[in-house]
């Protein structure tokens, strides 16, 4: 690969790590911020918690997730890591995205049904984030070879199949 492209790797990696730190840190802290919301508290305090969690989720955590995924996707091609550990990592990233959506859903319910919706104990969403995040960190830092995984030949070779419609020659 050309030199200037290789030189971009540290920049994308730094961006990736900075963004995923904000992403995972934010997801871990949000359930604990929400846990302070109590139906019996003053309306003004409730408003402060609701606003702080909303701004944290929409202005910091979600944009950081998007940046982490975009930078990570660039790194796949820059580092040419089309290897089993990456696919295992992406499976856990999918779980992290589900946890992200779940925390967003809890935030909306707390905001739209003040005093009626009790958020789950913060440890539950906290674990839903921490388990995939630790698994991802383990996979990405250990980069296990997964040698024992074998794929059938038909998944590893072009099959020479044709599309069921005409395509331009170039
Ligand atoms: C769609 C999401 C993601 C994609 C496509 C992605 C992809 C990648 C790629 C291709 C690398 C470069 C690996 C190498 O240089 O050998 C990387 C590095 C890294 N990723 Fe991700 N990643 C994603 C999300 C995450 C998440 C959520 C975490 C942590 C919770 C994470 C943690 C890291 C770390 C710590 C590194 C640096 C590893 C090293 O340099 O040895 N990534 N990522």
Automatic annotation (TrEMBL):
| Lineage of the organism | Bacteria, Pseudomonadati, Pseudomonadota, Alphaproteobacteria, Rhodobacterales
Q: Catalysed reaction per UniProt?
A: protoporphyrinogen IX + 3 A = protoporphyrin IX + 3 AH2
* Principal EC category: oxidoreductase
Q: How is the cofactor bound?
A: Binds 1 heme b (iron(II)-protoporphyrin IX) group per subunit.
Which protein is depicted? Protoporphyrinogen IX oxidase
Q: What is its EC number?
A: 1.3.99.-
The protein's matches in Pfam families, at most eight in alphabetical order, are given as:
UPF0093
Functional pathway? Porphyrin-containing compound metabolism; protoporphyrin-IX biosynthesis; protoporphyrin-IX from protoporphyrinogen-IX: step 1/1
Q: Which UniProt keywords apply?
A: Cell membrane, Heme, Iron, Membrane, Metal-binding, Transmembrane, Transmembrane helix
What sections of the protein cross the membrane?
Answer: 14-34, 55-78, 90-111, 123-146
Q: Which family does it belong to?
A: Belongs to the HemJ family.
Function in brief? Catalyzes the oxidation of protoporphyrinogen IX to protoporphyrin IX.
Q: Which domain of life is it from?
A: Bacteria
Q: Read off the InterPro entries from this record.
A: HemJ-like
Question: Which cofactors must be present for this protein to function?
Answer: heme b
Is Cell membrane a UniProt keyword of this protein? yes
């Amino acid at each position: 690969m050309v030199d200037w492209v290789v030189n971009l790797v540290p920049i994308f990696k730094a961006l990736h790590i900075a963004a995923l730190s904000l992403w995972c840190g934010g997801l871990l802290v949000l359930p604990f911020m929400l846990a302070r919301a109590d139906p019996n508290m003053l309306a003004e305090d409730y408003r402060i918690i609701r606003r702080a969690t909303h701004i944290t989720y929409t202005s910091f955590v979600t944009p950081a997730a998007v940046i982490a995924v975009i930078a990570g996707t660039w790194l796949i091609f820059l580092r040419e890591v089309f290897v089993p550990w990456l696919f295992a990592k992406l499976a856990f990233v999918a779980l992290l995205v589900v946890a992200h959506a779940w925390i967003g859903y809890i935030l909306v319910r707390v905001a739209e049904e003040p005093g009626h919706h009790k958020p789950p104990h913060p440890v539950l969403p906290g674990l839903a984030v921490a388990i995939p995040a630790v698994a991802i960190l383990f996979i990405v830092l250990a980069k296990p070879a997964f040698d024992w995984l074998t794929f059938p030949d038909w998944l590893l070779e072009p099959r020479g199949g044709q599309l069921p419609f005409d395509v331009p020659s170039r």
